[in-house]
Design a protein that fits this description.
Number of strands: 11
Largest sheet: 9 strands, mixed
Strand order of the largest sheet: 3-4-5-7-6-8-9-10-11
Mean pLDDT: 89
Low-confidence stretches: 1-53
Helix content: 25-40%
Structural class: alpha/beta
Oligomer: single chain
Number of helices: 10
Distance between the termini: 83 Å
Strand content: 15-25%
Length: 390
């Protein structure tokens, strides 16, 4: 080796040592620097801005990661199942794990009140969602099925954020646009309207019950509500619907990702991308604000300032609903969840529905109104239920 090449090698080594020393000094003074900045190159398959640790693109759903952390294109439904499993793991990383068989206790259904509402009956009941916890809910039953000769399809009717909770869904809240439970019961559906945790007087002790989020408690209550509907002699089995506005809109999506018995999902004003939520305003990502409230997902607060690292987003959740029927109401004037973000989400999720050969099963509508579920949109949703469930 010549003197010149030896000298050049020594210079390169010296530069590397200086760079390494600077990096160590940076991390010593600022331990979180690696989490905030891309100090190292991004691995193959990871997009710039995604954040260290997320791994897969939130917008390109047709890629998956194998058990050796290699990225591959999704070419089949079997490939997609691997990506979908990672989406569910991302949800559970924030929401907490979905409860298992140990919480699936006998329902112990109790009817507290029954009211004759003309062409249907409204029952106030409670059921055991897990050991030591009961859920109050309204059950609307068309009178046509009470004779035991006929069965009706059933729908999970989930309420928005409202001081009266599930009462608005069953006509007890002076909120006509929220009365989809009443309208569906009159259309011949059995409807269950459970409450959402930490709203309208329903206050389960999440910590004592072992939950990391109100969202997961709501999901489990809803799943147990489907168990209840399956147990009723007048309910048609083989598939349910889920419908909700605002809070109920994303509650329906979350539940359907975990429970394949839901064959039709209707979400009104229920979501936009986390990175678009209120324009990314950091104030809404503080503890007990927006999505980070205890009754939703307090774990999301740790992603403040790095929303691209949240391990799931609605592009992936809508994709995870395929090949089922999905109807989205995204008004042009909604200032909570922006319709353009919804369109981007649907665009990203659509390839999954095409993979299954059912691109028509994902539909979004944009009525010219604010954060509302207007009659025209509800009628479209009901027609979809009729087509799929009856």
């Amino acid at each position: 080796m010549s003197y010149a090449s030896t000298a050049a090698s020594a210079v390169r080594l010296f530069c590397c040592l200086i760079t390494f020393a600077c990096l160590i000094g940076r991390l010593w003074s600022d331990p979180d620097a690696l989490q905030r900045e891309s100090l190292f190159p991004l691995p193959f398959g990871r997009e710039e801005g995604q954040g260290e640790g997320r791994g897969l693109s939130r917008t390109n759903l047709l890629v998956y990661r194998d058990n050796k952390d290699s990225i591959h294109p999704v070419k089949s439904v079997r490939d997609w199942s691997k990506r979908r499993a990672e989406i569910v793991r991302g949800m559970e990383a924030v929401m907490g794990l979905l409860p298992g068989k140990d919480k699936r206790c006998p329902l112990d259904l109790k009817v507290e009140e029954e009211v004759d509402c003309g062409d249907y009956v409204r029952r106030l009941l409670t059921y055991a969602s897990e050991p030591g916890a009961r859920v109050p809910a309204y059950l609307l039953i068309p009178k046509s099925v009470l004779d035991g000769k006929h069965k009706a399809p059933a729908i999970l009717c989930l309420h928005q954020t409202h001081s009266l909770g599930q009462k608005v869904v069953v006509g007890l809240g002076s909120s006509p646009n929220d009365e989809y439970g009443v309208e569906l019961a009159r259309r011949g559906y059995v409807c269950l309207a459970p409450p959402y945790p930490l709203l309208a007087g329903y206050n389960p002790d999440l910590k004592a019950l072992g939950y990391q989020s109100g969202t997961m408690k709501a999901i489990w209550n809803n799943i147990r509500g489907l168990d209840l509907l399956e147990s009723l002699p007048f309910v048609k089995r083989g598939g349910f619907g889920a419908i909700g506005h605002s809070l109920g809109g994303h509650n329906a999506i979350f539940t359907a990702v975990f429970d394949q018995r839901i064959k039709v999902v209707v979400s009104s004003c229920g979501f936009d991308s986390f990175v678009d939520y209120y324009g990314g305003d950091p104030e809404v990502w503080k503890p007990e604000r927006g999505w980070c409230q205890t009754r939703y997902m307090p774990g999301l607060a740790r992603y403040a300032g790095r929303l691209n690292e949240i391990p799931f987003d609605f592009q992936e959740l809508i994709g995870a609903l395929a090949p089922r029927q999905v109807f989205v109401n995204a008004p042009l004037g909604d200032t909570n969840f922006k319709w353009r973000s919804v369109d981007d989400i649907v665009k990203s999720a659509s390839p999954v529905f095409r993979l299954y050969g059912v691109p028509q099963n994902l539909r979004v509508e944009h009525p010219d109104c604010g954060h509302l579920f207007p009659r025209g949109m509800r009628d479209m949703a009901y027609e979809l239920f009729d087509k799929t469930l009856k």
